[in-house]
């Protein structure tokens, strides 16, 4: 087990050695993620486990926990979103191998040499976990925008239909 995260690993060698990496990295270490969050404060606690399952499929298990500050698209105010990842990525070299992955595996396409950037892998999974449109679940729309309750809405006044006379003429 390693607490330092190398910038590049040979995924096939890590699978054979059943290697694990775990530790904490600041949110600021993830450049693409930093562009989407309101604040890059905080730490990502991560764990990467390489191995083979009972079917012989090479994988990397990605687990991470972080609380990210996002901007609510309703209120335009920052809010904290806890993100928890726990998934398995099936290691493949060609796209056609994706069909042979067992259910529950997401494909991770590697180069022929098997080089893998662990930081980018964690960041990719964090980016995929973010909502497309961040909305604070605790935010309620103001009364003037949300409108009155259904009980308070009076039924529209009945107005005379201008075509009622025409309808009567067509019946004749």
If you had to describe this structure to a student in words, what would you say it looks like?
The chain has 172 residues and is α+β, with helices and mostly antiparallel strands. 20% of the residues lie in helices and 32% in strands. It has 5 helices and 7 strands, in the order E-H-E-H-E-E-E-E-E-H-H-H. The protein has a 5-stranded mixed beta sheet. A hairpin with a 6-residue loop joins strand 4 and strand 5 (78-92). The protein starts with 8 loop residues before the first strand and ends with a helix.
What is the assembly state of the chains in this entry?
single chain
H/E element string? EHEHEEEEEHHH
Largest sheet: 5 strands, mixed
State mean pLDDT (0 to 100 scale).
88
Strand order of the largest sheet: 2-3-4-5-6
Helix content: 10-25%
Summarize the structure in short:
This protein has 172 residues and is of the alpha+beta class. It has five helices and seven strands.
Comma- or semicolon-separated keywords:
two-stranded antiparallel ribbon, alpha+beta, 5-stranded mixed beta sheet
Helices and strands in order:
Layout: E1 9-10, H1 11-17, E2 20-26, H2 31-34, E3 43-52, E4 58-71, E5 78-92, E6 105-109, E7 115-116, H3 118-129, H4 143-146, H5 164-171
Parallel strand pairs: 5-6
Antiparallel strand pairs: 1-7, 2-3, 3-4, 4-5
């Amino acid at each position: 087990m390693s607490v330092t995260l190398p910038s590049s690993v040979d995924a096939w060698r890590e699978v054979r050695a059943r290697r694990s990496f775990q530790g904490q990295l600041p949110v600021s270490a993830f450049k693409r993620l930093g562009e989407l969050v309101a604040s890059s404060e905080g730490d990502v606690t991560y764990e990467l486990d390489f191995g083979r399952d009972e079917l012989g499929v090479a994988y990397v298990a990605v687990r991470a926990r972080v609380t990210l500050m996002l901007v609510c698209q309703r209120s335009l105010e920052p809010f904290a979103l806890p993100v928890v990842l726990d998934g398995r990525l099936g290691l493949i070299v060609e796209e056609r191998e994706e069909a042979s992955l067992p259910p529950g595996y997401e494909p991770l396409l590697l180069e022929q040499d098997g080089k893998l950037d662990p930081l980018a892998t964690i960041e990719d999974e964090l980016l995929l976990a973010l909502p497309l449109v961040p909305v604070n679940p605790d935010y309620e729309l103001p009364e003037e925008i949300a409108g009155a309750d259904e009980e308070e809405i009076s039924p529209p006044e009945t107005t005379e239909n201008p075509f009622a006379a025409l309808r009567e003429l067509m019946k004749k």
